[in-house]
Each structure stands twice: as structure tokens, then as C-alpha cells.
Amino acid sequence: MAFIDKDLDELVGYLPARTEPGDFAAFWSDTLAAARSHPLDAAFTALESPLTTVVVEDATFRGYGGQPIKGWMLRPAAATGPLPAIVEYVGYGGGRGLHFERLLWASAGYAHFVMDTRGQGAGWSVGETPDDFADGNGPAYPGVMTRGILAPETYYYRRLYTDAVRAVEAARSHPHVDGSRIVVHGGSQGGGLALAVAGLVGDLAGVLADVPFLQHLRHATEITDGFPYKEIANFCKVHRDKTEQVFRTLSYFDGLNFAVRAGAPALYSVALMDEICPPSTVFASYNHYAGPKEITVYPYNGHEGGQAHQVPAALSFAAAVTK
Questions:
Q1: At 320, is the pLDDT very low, low, confident or very high (cuts 50, 70, 90)?
Q2: Which residues are responsible for catalysis (predicted)?
Q3: Which of 140, 190, 191, 305 has the fewest CB neighbours in a 10 Å radius?
Q4: Average pLDDT over residues 194-223
């Protein structure tokens, strides 16, 4: 593996033009209003677990179209009073996983809400939420990047971004959560979801976005042969006459258009040998991000990014923005 993108000094100043449809704000306002016309119905059911220091609850709430979305809520067993909360979104192909895989944040004193990912959860981490707006709607492999891509109204990520916003609302409804101290968090697809939520929810305490996916979308398909972006390129390779239609749809979901609307403090991370989420796509998002921000750079890493080396920075950041 080698450096695949611009030099770091170029990346630091990389601020490409955005492609934003004129009705972007109205599209998302209408989408979220439609979702909120359904009751949230957030429910948290205690799970029997051999864990003694963490309380685990099986969570369900209603996302896009009123569809039930699964999640985990974990919190320290000894905690009293409302807690700051981390709302976590999962990387591409994964689901909420098994609850004992998610112990870091509760061990650090936070309520930790992990959202399942509709129609995914069969690639590397278990999921169980179907995508009821697609044929064969259970968790599936390999990918969803072109599901409904010919119109923003039908595109898969309209549903997933809406679920992600509603997950924040579900976390805030929990009696042990301080709704004023919410940090959204994720890596890869999860980082992209966190950034979309940051642009759609105005009162977050912070954003943790590690090697985020779904940023600077057209450029991404032009500079990497890595999947999942390659799913879009392959679609356009076959549907030659639909290319501009595809990228018009994607302009409603490009992270750059959410980054410019985000005001919460953000901590990004980027890896300079990342062939899945190329560094110029991450820096494009970071440089457009409107709120206070910082970025950690891992020069010799690929899409794994900082992994455990990023954890101390994330913990420190979360503590600072939720104090």
C-alpha cells in the first residue's frame, strides 16, 4: 500500500466546490417531518447479561416511515443521575453486533446507544433490522450503495440518515440520558452518518468522525477502485445514460453539504493510505465543516485508521464537550 492521494500540504488546504441542489434544505426538512409524524415509540428492555458493571437494554425506536429500528443502550451500573451519551453508528455492512462487543463508552461513564443499520448486518457484524422499503428486506450482503439511486426520494440513504436522526431522539428520551450532552460517533459509514446528523440536528455536544465515508461522493468514485464506492462506478458503467441522474441523487446525501451546516465541535481522523475513503474526501469534508474542529492524521494507515490509538483522543474530546 502507498499514498494514493494528494500530499498532506495540499490536503490541508483542499476545499473543493460543493454540488448542492436548490431544494436540499426543504428535502431534508420534509423528510424528517414525515418521519416525526410517526410516534417515536422508543422502548428499552433490560437484557439478562453476565456483565456486572454495565446495564444492557435492548432498544427499539421508529425511524424512517415509522419502521422499527433496533439498538443497544448500555450504561454503567453504578451511575446515578442523567448521563452524557454517545450515539454510535456502524460501519458499512455491519449491524449493532453483540452487546458485549460495545463496552468502552459505558466503562468510561457514558450512556451508549448503538443504532442497528437497516438492511445491513451481514457483512462483518450482526444486524437484525430489515429495510422494509426494499425487496428481500432482511440483512443482506454485499451492498446498498445503489439501492434506489435513481431518485433521492427512493435512495437507501434517505432512510438510513433519517434513522440516524431519530436515534438521537430515542437516546434523548431515555431517563438516564442528559439530552443536552449528546455526542454522535462512528467510523467509516458510521462517521458519515455522524456528520449527516451533525448537519441535521442543531444542538449536539460533539461529533466523532473516524475515516468517514459518504464524503465528496463523485470525486470518491473517480479516484478509487475500492468498494463500496466502486458499487456506484459499476452501476454507472452499465447504466451509461443514468450517470448524471445518479449524481444528482447523491448530491442530497454528500457529507460536504451537511458539514457546512454543522456547528457542534468535531474530531475527525483520517488515514493517508486509505483506499476505501481516500484522504481528499475526508479533508474536503473537514475543510467545509462549519463548527470548531480538529483532525488526527495517520500517515501510514489504511482504512483501519487509528483504531485503539484514536481511543484516548476520542475519550478526551468527549469528556471536554460533555463536561
A1: very high
A2: 188 (nucleophile), 274 (charge relay system), 303 (charge relay system)
A3: 140
A4: 98
3-state class of 181 per DSSP? strand
Dihedral angle sign, alpha carbons of residues 288, 26, 115, 322: positive
Task: Please give the distance of CA 97 from its chain centroid, rounded to a whole number.
Answer: 16
List, as residue ranges, the binding site.
Answer: 92
The predicted-structure confidence for 44-90, as pLDDT tens digits, reads as follows 999 999 999 999 999 999 999 999 999 999 999 999 889 999 999 99
Is 3 part of any domain? no
Regarding pTM above 0.90, the answer is: yes
> Which residues are annotated binding-site positions for substrate?
92
Domain, as residue range, for 84: 8-322
Catalytic residues, by residue number, are 188, 274, 303
Instruction: Tell me the average pLDDT of the chain.
Output: 95
Residue 163 is assigned to a structural domain of this protein? yes
3-state secondary structure of 296: strand
Question: DSSP string of 26-66?
Answer: HHHHHHHHHHHTS----EEEE---S-SSEEEEEEEEE-GGG
Distances, alpha carbon 141 to alpha carbons 23, 120, 126, 298, in Å: 33, 7, 12, 30
| Residue 274, domain CATH | 3.40.50.1820
- Does some domain include residue 1? no
- The answer to whether residue 2 sits within a structural domain is no
DSSP type of residue 118: T
